[in-house]
Design a protein that fits this description.
Helix content is 29%, strand content 25%. The protein is α/β, with parallel strands linked by helices.
């Protein structure tokens, strides 16, 4: 760890919320110190399915790639990896800008913010990257700066709630356990009835494949994952973008 940085910059705890485990981190330092930590422990890369977008990510060239949990300044830095569902969803958005031009887009569980950034680059009118991790939101702001875009961020827990006047909702890599799949099976029908277009990016995780919700998903786009993504996500070979139609 670089001299001058506090090892426990983030105080994190695991809590149960809506039958699903979430991590909440309280930032105990100012924004610039946090940004310096992110810059130190990630690299800016385009080595993914959307090279149009630069991202701060933990890669095999970063020390944190092989670090033990106790040696890391972040707890569960999901935002520092470009997960396969998010990659295929962002590729879909960039390749079909007409679907998102002038739309109001909410990216739930935004992580590194790639899908939100992709929608902004595709001409979306208003975009909000939503993530309950405040470190993710800081990383998203840094990634926006890299790509010359501006969007809103929110740390609200929006899953299951009324979300306001949005045209589009993105769910990239959000079906990682059955509890979340159950939450979405209750929430997505309400969103759809209110006129929201819902796009899901997923590499074939079992909580989605085996869930009754899948009967209401229509495949719009499917592609093989790149080699580096295959190495990082053992057992996953393709990514699919689904649209909810229930």
């Amino acid at each position: 760890m670089p001299i001058g940085f506090t090892p426990l910059l983030l105080r994190c705890s695991s809590v149960e919320l809506n039958s699903a485990r979430r991590w909440f981190c309280s930032v105990s330092s100012n924004s610039e110190q946090l940004r310096q930590l992110i810059r130190t422990h990630t690299e800016v890369t385009r080595d993914h399915m959307t090279p149009e977008i630069q991202l701060h990510l933990i890669t095999p060239r970063c020390s944190l790639w092989s670090a033990k949990g106790d040696d890391a300044p972040f707890t569960d830095p999901f935002w520092a990896f470009y997960w396969p569902g998010g990659q295929v969803l962002s590729r879909f958005v960039l390749d079909r800008p007409r679907l998102f031009h002038n739309k109001k887009v909410l990216d739930v569980g935004s992580g590194c913010g790639a899908s939100a950034i992709a929608s902004k680059l595709s001409g979306a009118h208003t975009v909000c990257a939503n993530d309950t991790d405040p470190v993710a939101l800081e990383a998203i702001k840094m990634n926006c700066e890299l790509n010359g875009v501006y969007l809103d961020t929110s740390s609200d827990d929006v899953i299951g709630s009324k979300i306001g006047d949005w045209d589009v909702v993105f769910l990239g890599d959000m079906f990682y356990d059955s509890d979340f799949a159950d939450l979405f099976s209750q929430w997505l029908p309400r969103l759809s009835r209110s006129g929201v277009n819902i796009y899901v990016g997923d590499p074939g995780r079992l909580p989605l494949v085996n869930h009754p919700l899948k009967r209401n998903l229509v495949s719009l786009f499917r592609c093989p994952l790149p080699e580096n993504c295959l190495r990082e996500n053992n057992g996953m070979s393709t990514g699919t973008v689904w649209k909810y139609t229930g």
